[in-house]
Amino acid sequence: MSEQASLNIAVLTVSDTRNEDTDTSGRYLVEAIENDGHKIAAKTIVKDDIYQMRAIISQWIADERITAIVTTGGTGFTFRDSTPEAISPLFDKTVDGFGELFRAKSYDEIGTSTIQSRALAGLSNYTAIFCLPGSTGACKTGWALISPQLNSTNKPCNFVGHLLSRGQH
Fold this sequence. Notes:
This is Molybdenum cofactor biosynthesis protein B. The chain has 169 residues and is of the alpha/beta class. It has helices spanning 24-35, 50-62, 83-87, 96-110, 136-149, 160-163; strands spanning 8-14, 39-46, 68-72, 93-94, 120-124, 127-132. It starts with 7 loop residues before the first strand and ends in a 6-residue tail after the last helix.
């Protein structure tokens, strides 16, 4: 059995109101990522602004050291929720199954309210990007789905081979 690869993962909290002291979702993701043996490459909080989000995510996508990005917040239906609009145009490929599976799992936890979740994922420049809702519970649900796919020993497949092949094509 091969050893799990340690990835460099960035965490972005999208919020108009949270700061480092109140960002429980971002804090949870950092702890979960580190507990899985990965490294935090960057962590920041950004206002729910399409262009500020795109600027940060674009910078991280271009950084060869960052292999994955997890965002929390901005995936609902309020006027200010704009994470999908900001991030999805940056995808080279969309991971449709992630949002579908997130909502299916979330249904068991919050019922039909899950239809208001616009959780999504994609690949950009050999970087996996997962966009989760802002609640800590949603981040726990999302990480349970993401974690095996960022584990290089997960069978029958995982994203790690795609992420670590940057520069080989």
